[in-house]
Amino acid sequence: ATPIMQGIVNLHHDLMFFITFILFFVFVAMGRVLYWFSIDNNPLTTQGAKNLIFRNEPITHGTTIEVVWTVIPALILVVVALPSFALLYSIDEVIDPSLTIKCVGHQWYWSYEYSDSANENGSLNFDSYMIPEDELELGELRLLEVDNRVVLPTGTHIRVLITALDVLHSWAVPSLGIKVDSCPGRLNETSLFILREGVFYGQCSEICG
Q: Which residues form the Cytochrome oxidase subunit II transmembrane region profile domain (predicted)?
């Protein structure tokens, strides 16, 4: 639902191409080794191998193949690194937000504050508790539904400030491509640009202790 999550999905698809190629190549290489160097096709006993070593016979090195299996993985890492770095820098991009929301982690609920939505009583703030299983209505999702949802606009640059008051938590919304630790005494910051409307569920992503 955000450009960041789209970038993560696209990067995953690109990496799967390399992973599939490497997996196929390794299986082929292992199959050839197991076949050609089996005891039936290459009956070189352990004692015979020791005799070759004791006679100081020269061992043949495949310089070409050693260069190839060093250079190709290095090139693959470079090809993978370039889009990865671009995605990481886009995640940390500093924007001029139109809306700022502050998320404060507690055991076991979150507090939210719309810092830019001041009224006669100050900023708009509320607590969001998970709905117990025995109070869920038909169609609601277990361990995901809350009593007060955070409502955010689409097509708007949003700044999210995240912290905690007791222990470590993690504010994570997979559909938005966000997973940020909330630490007591520390204010972490991230940004959002939601592309489409919908209900996007957060999840527990921290052993908060």
A: 1-95
The highest-level CATH class for domain 3-92 is mainly alpha
Dump pLDDT digits (tens) for 35-76: 887 767 666 655 555 555 555 555 566 788 889 989 998 998
Per DSSP, the residues of the chain read --HHHHHHHHHHHHHHHHHHHHHHHHHHHHHHHHHHTSTTT----HHHHHHHHHTTPPPP--HHHHHHHHHHHHHHHHHHHHHHHHHHHHHT-----SEEEEEEEETTEEEEEEEEEEETTEEEEEEEEBPPGGGPPTTPPTTT-BSS-----SSSEEEEEEEESSS-EEEEEGGGTEEEEE-BT--EEEEEE--S-S----B------
Positions of CATH 2.60.40.420 in the chain: 99-204
The superfamily in CATH containing domain 99-204 is Cupredoxins -  blue copper proteins (2.60.40.420)
